[in-house]
Specification:
With 228 residues, this protein is an alpha+beta fold. 64% of the residues lie in helices and 8% in strands. The protein folds into two domains: 4-129, Endonuclease I-creI (Roll); 151-226, no CATH class. Helix 6 (131-178) crosses helix 9 (213-226), helix 7 (185-196) crosses helix 9 and helix 8 (202-209) crosses helix 9 (213-226).
């Protein structure tokens, strides 16, 4: 199965219908950012980038020459290696002109410009023209977020259930310590309700008794104090 990085590359390499200006800009981006470029004084020829379409094409060429993107199922990371310090400032200006951040780190003889924010990576793919990959990326992002939200919900519900059981066991322990028949009648009814429903929350006990949660809590608190 083709990797996500390979999918993005294939899509970018097969974009059709570009103007001659964009084709020249993409070629220039690829040439400057290629590992075969040995000219450490390389600079961007801004005459080749008269508009945003040409800038996007240049960025696409730069990515094809020295870029990489991770599988979004694993983590969010895309980067482009800028081979020389002479190109760093030009590339910062390019990214700024396209509305992209320019975070980077020193890497080998050049600089790795990287994106880790999922929203930015989605924009980055769209700006380069990888529209199908952008949609796939955003779909995976939504699925991951939905899965994460579900897991958090399950964890919260599990934690709440554990708290309910723990509190119930303590209440039952105190009821048994006193002896249910030794309790005043109003408290005896609440105690019996708790003994018969050991896994239910206070809200659920209140619903069964036709009263409020606070009332159930108050009565059980009285029972626990009586056993001390």
């Amino acid at each position: 199965m083709k990797s996500f990085a390979a999918q993005v590359r294939d899509e970018l390499e097969n974009i059709e219908g570009e103007s001659l200006q964009c084709e020249m800009a993409q070629s220039a981006g690829f040439r400057l950012f290629s590992k075969d470029n040995a000219n450490y004084k390389s600079k961007v020829d801004w005459n080749l980038l008269p508009d945003e379409a040409a800038m996007r094409a240049f960025l696409r060429g730069a990515f094809l020459a020295g870029g990489y993107i991770n599988d979004p199922h694993k983590n969010y990371h895309a980067e482009i290696l800028v081979p020389f310090s002479s190109l760093r400032r030009d590339f910062e200006n390019l990214l700024e002109g396209l509305g992209l951040p320019n975070r980077h780190v020193k890497k080998h003889r050049g600089y790795a410009f990287y994106f880790k924010d999922s929203e930015i990576i989605g924009d980055f793919l769209g700006i380069m023209g990888a529209n199908k990959s952008m949609l796939d990326f955003l779909t995976i992002k939504v699925e991951k977020e939905d899965s994460g939200n579900l897991n958090r919900k399950i964890n919260i519900e599990t934690a709440n259930y554990d708290k309910t059981i723990s509190a119930s066991l303590k209440q039952i322990e105190h009821i048994n310590k006193i002896g249910i028949e030794s309790l005043p009648k109003p408290l005896r009814e609440i105690a019996r309700l708790r003994l018969d429903n050991p896994t239910k929350s206070l809200a659920e006990l209140a619903a069964l008794a036709g009263t409020s949660k606070s009332h159930i809590n108050q009565e059980l608190t009285k029972i626990m104090k009586l056993s001390i």
